[in-house]
């Protein structure tokens, strides 16, 4: 009797499920749809702006982009008809866990007097500042002694725990022993290290594997230090790794499906990084004509970080002011050779609260880019660098709904990008001062 009852209960349940055509899972909420009326649209790909566009968003993606048109019935409408709308900005070189690095004392105090948890809290604040300035994606190029905390920040943002840009991170960065701060303290003291010390080919491969295991999307290493001018007028530097060590870093990183960024300021460090086969050159002040030809031929991205150089030069003195001028000349030559220049600011080298990352756009225009070229350098070009060109960097169907708005026309005044009034990331509005 009991077995028969169980049988018929089971049959009834099966028939009930089949009859309704539904599973026993809860129905998913309907995808939210938003239409944005746009006064001027700079989509990150075209050479001109489009007037009176309509962007339709479904969930976290752009469903369609049309000139003119009417929003579908029942869809929430955001009126940005008096604004210029652009793709969310991408900063390809930041340090979320650093808050100003003009002098060695600025740096040492953070590593010696601030715990990693405290620095992580500040980095969450910095991520929000970046997002509110219109940066919806960033590549963070090392934690400066905070171990793998950048992975935690990236995950917290991705999980919706704190607001911030989409992140790719490089964790600890690498130099050979003794070639990066903290330095100069008594040998009796164990002070924090700003990087991971790596020695020898086997040590290089092991360090890459360890960083990837803990969540690194990129591997960063310091190709050089001690920047100085010689009689030839070229900015030279001391190369950190042997060619064999640098090539081991790059080969192992590529074998594991990741990419390599090289800090390379002097001509010697840049040349060594290019020999090793890196994917991006960071800073690159000492690019010579021959190196510009090589970087263009190899299709390596250059991330100039002009803002930070100009910001720290007065406080550091020495060759730093001359290096800023040298980089301007290199930028202008690289532009003529069609080098792939991706916007990167080195935010964290300057205090996140003091300088808006979008200042970098202004430098690029002052150095010779058209406003549209500068905008692409901070949208579609770094999206390609990150391997996200199918997801972000332009406003078109299928991409993430990462969108910013300004009141003026940045094609006439690029500094408008330093006054973002509207920020949407993944279909969610984080800032709207255009209501």
Overview of the molecule:
The structure is a single chain. The chain has helices at residues 2-20, 104-113, 116-132, 149-158, 200-213, 243-255, 267-276, 289-298, 306-316, 320-336, 359-366, 371-377, 380-385; strands at 33-41, 50-58, 61-67, 76-87, 89-94, 135-140, 166-169, 174-175, 196-197, 218-222, 224-229, 235-239, 259-264, 280-283, 301-303, 403-406, 422-425, 428-432. It has 435 residues and is an alpha/beta fold. The strands form five sheets. It has a seven-stranded mixed beta sheet, with no helix packed on it. The longest helix is centred in the N-terminal third of the chain and has 19 residues, at 2-20. The model is unreliable at 1-26 (pLDDT under 50).
